[in-house]
Amino acid sequence: MKWRGRRGSGNIEDRRGSRGARAGSLGLGGMLVVLAVGYFFGIDVSPIVGGGGGGAPLDRQDQEWGEFVSVVLADTEEIWASTLPEQAGMAYADPTLVLFSGVVQSACGGASSAMGPFYCPGDRKIYLDTDFFDLMRERMNAGGDFAAAYVVAHEVGHHVQNLTGVLSAVNRARSEGSETRANQISVRAELQADCYAGLWARRAQDRFGTLEQGDIQEALGAAHAVGDDVIQSSAGTTPMPDSFTHGTAEQRQTWFLQGFRSGDMRQCDTFSVRTP
Q: Where are the alpha helices (DSSP H) in 89-214?
């Protein structure tokens, strides 16, 4: 992705400050496995990873990830500022992206890095510990700058859902049904956010020409890596469709490509199709 030297967003809230000793006795490899389990199965593993006082200033990699995320967020701001009025007849309001280390407080409550990147509709903020990008590269075989851009664009997709009212409708529907039904609704919401990420990629390429050879494959690799079936298989368990909350690897790739190929929000209606 061609991002260096380009405009960054003014909507970054950097709370990182210092880096605690996060890996502890687990070591980096063990830490990344624990974080993956926590993120993809919705388990708060902060008691396991929360040790370590003291810290060091942000290293060059941390600084560069911060700069990269700022540029990607700026791109999403420009694309959605024109796309939402054109395609949904409503104005776009920029979200804030919070960079944090270890633990963070949001309007949705406290959270840890173990929970992975998330969007909080209560304060319209995206929360991201960029160590997640290292996890993707080192343990999930999903590295590359555009894989990271996909993560940011996916969370911005949830912000778009919040603005359009989809997210509140999803949350109401989830609370009214069985756990299996709630999971099915969650899958459709996540796949729509994937489609919106693809839509952003298409329109960003059309406007800025930022894509380089291999970028879309990086995004598809990330989408595959975070499929529920792949995560459960990698954890040594048999995939259980009723427990899926984000969609299979194939579904996530398919809907990202749907958005990328169409550039049209109407083609991202995962809720109206019989099988997403």
A: 131-139, 145-164, 166-176, 179-208
- Residues 119 and 108: their CA atoms lie apart, in Å, by 9
Reported as a single tens digit per residue, the pLDDT across 112-121 is 888 889 999 9
Which pLDDT tens digit goes with each residue over 184-231?
A: 999 999 999 999 999 999 999 999 999 999 999 999 999 999 999 999
Q: Residue 130: helix, strand or coil by DSSP?
A: coil
Can you give the pTM of this predicted structure? 0.86
Structure tokens at 8: 């960054």
CA distance 232 to 185: 19
Distance of alpha carbon 11 from alpha carbon 29, whole angstroms: 32
Check if the beta carbon of residue 13 is closer than 8 Å to that of residue 125: yes
